[in-house]
Amino acid sequence: MKNGITALLLLALLLILPFPATAAEQDEPAIYVIKKGDTLWGLSERFLKDPYYWPNMWARNSLITNPHQIYPGQKLRVFPDRLEFVPREQPAEAAGGQKAAAAAKSADIYQEVAEEKSFTVRGNEGFLLETELKPFGSVISVHHDRIVAGEDDIVYTDIGTIHGIKGGEKFSVFRREASVSHPLTNEIMGIKVVPLGTLQLTDVERKSSRAIITRSYKEISPGSYLMPYSDGKRHEVPLKMPGRELKGYIIESYSGTNIIASGDIVYIDLGSSQGAEPGNMLYIVRDVLPDQRHVEGRVERLPQELLGALVILETGKKTATALVVKSIDAIYKGDKIDSRTK
Known about the structure:
Distance between the termini: 71 Å
Number of helices: 6
Largest sheet: 6 strands, antiparallel, barrel
CATH architecture of the largest domain: Beta Barrel
Radius of gyration: 29 Å
Helix content: 10-25%
Strand order of the largest sheet: 6-7-10-9-8-11
Shape: elongated
CATH topology of the largest domain: Thrombin, subunit H
Number of domains: 3
Low-confidence stretches: 5-26, 90-95, 105-111
């Protein structure tokens, strides 16, 4: 009898005491309220520790038409593996109750304002001199018949008064490297040029001039290209979602090597004529081919392999210079790039 009473008391206690939270309740998202200064990049970096997640969040949220126009007061559900915006016409959680209290408590953790993300252009990334463009002139000799020149050295150029030039004008100096052809079409996309420094004309003749090297990053030799002056100062390029769908290829790397990784400079076959702009971030992807021995015609294509991401730093008309900001796997010349916009 005593054992029976004890069992009844234990059953009563189990009915009275609250059950442990279910898995769904334990995964209840925190609610974060957007504040002035927040960006999708910063939110992804802060909550998921992966700033490159933001294009996925932007693409999956029809509430956001522009990644740089999220508004204070918008509510964000923060899950361990994803972020979701709460529709404005729906409350984030029902007023009152344990869920609302838990969400409010969790939101207190996330009070730091995220910062806008930008990338630095250092001025030494180089670019592709496209086929229709020509250098303004060249270095044709170094003082005392030397092979190379550096800062404060005297050189001679093929620029003169017939080009409308006067003494004192400055030019940027570039080394001409190999012509770059498209990995698929073999079309010549341009000549890879690498910045070497700057010079200033001191004495100008009709078809030639004397100049002094005012800045040198690398040794300057006869045959170096002269282009309109650029101060080469560092500047920031803010992240910007592409205005249209962009698809293209990596066609060359700054180093000239075939294997590319995070931090490398690459050149791509997208420029201003295709709508590419500095700050656009693109995915690097590779097609995966099905094994025809087993698909029996039922599968035409497989999901692409995601290799990484790059950000465009500067654009030409048909090409652009970009920085690889993330590499999940080895990247090669000829790999595809895709904006994957909505």
